[in-house]
Write a structure and sequence with these properties.
This is DSBA-like thioredoxin domain-containing protein. One of its GO terms (molecular function) is oxidoreductase activity. It comes from Cylindrodendrum hubeiense. The longest helix has 17 residues, at about 110-125. This protein has a single domain (about 5-214), classed as 3-Layer(aba) Sandwich (Glutaredoxin), CATH 3.40.30.10. A four-stranded mixed beta sheet has the order 2-1-3-4, sandwiched between helices. The protein starts with a strand and ends with a helix. The chain is globular and about 50 Å long. The protein is built from nine helices and four strands, in the order E-H-E-H-H-H-H-H-H-H-E-E-H. Helix 1 (about 15-25) links the parallel strand 1 (about 5-10) and strand 2. Helices cover about 50% and strands about 10% of the residues. By secondary structure, the chain is an alpha+beta fold. Helix 5 (about 110-125) packs across helix 6 and helix 6 runs antiparallel to helix 7 (about 150-155).
């Protein structure tokens, strides 16, 4: 049996990959999902009150048509998940969320971390919540299966894991220019998918690895 690690480099709100993993179940090539942190806007303030206005200015060069095209594209990709997207609400620096994700990954493993990332996506895009505020992170941890008191302590101790996660972000950033990036390890070769893809794209890559590694 060959065990494949799937390394998912994200900025906390990329949901599609686990949908693909649920469709590709192979006893001969089990997949283990691992999350790497990346911050495209590490200098972002802790809180930006209006994420839509910030994106218009900083991502779409004050071009409303470009922003509308982006939002329509995101909505089309999210449609198979049945998750309504909102582009309103606050945003802010995502480091605190990365710190929590990495610590949960170390202590609770892949399945809990995957549920945590999914719930952060839902809270951010469906409910318009801040991606890294304490209440958002505690709620996501509890939904993922982390005991509430453990979640509160983990979120409150902002020094815990800070140095290691900063170094991890720095190291990952040396090889990554944009996210998400998915790297699937195979017996014969690894496959890397850069940029946001459809679920079908990820399924195709996973099936290729199964075929080549069985």
């Amino acid at each position: 049996m060959y065990e494949s690690q799937v390394t998912f480099t994200i900025d906390t709100t990329c949901p599609w990959l686990d949908q693909a993993l649920s469709q590709v179940q192979s006893p001969s090539v089990p997949f283990t999902l691992y999350f790497d942190p990346y911050q495209p806007s590490s200098d972002l303030p802790d809180t930006v009150p209006d994420r839509s206005q910030w994106a218009l200015q900083h991502k779409h060069n004050d071009n409303p048509e470009a922003q509308q095209l982006y939002q329509a594209h995101m909505a089309s990709l999210a449609e198979p998940l049945g998750v309504p997207l909102t582009f309103a609400g606050p945003t802010g620096n995502s480091f605190h969320a990365h710190r929590v994700i990495q610590l949960v990954q170390e202590s609770d493993g892949a399945a809990v971390t995957n549920r945590l990332v999914d719930e952060l996506f839902r809270l951010y895009f469906a409910e318009g919540r801040h991606p890294a505020e304490d209440d958002t992170l505690i709620a996501a941890c509890v939904t993922a299966g982390v005991p509430e008191e453990q979640a509160k302590a983990l979120v409150a101790d902002r020094e815990k894991g800070q140095k290691q996660v900063k170094e991890k972000i720095r190291t990952v950033g040396m090889d990554v220019n944009a996210v998400p990036v998915v790297m699937v390890e195979g017996r014969r070769r690894d496959l890397t998918l850069d940029g946001l893809k459809t679920i079908a794209d990820y399924v195709k890559a996973l099936k290729t690895i199964v075929k080549e590694s069985s």
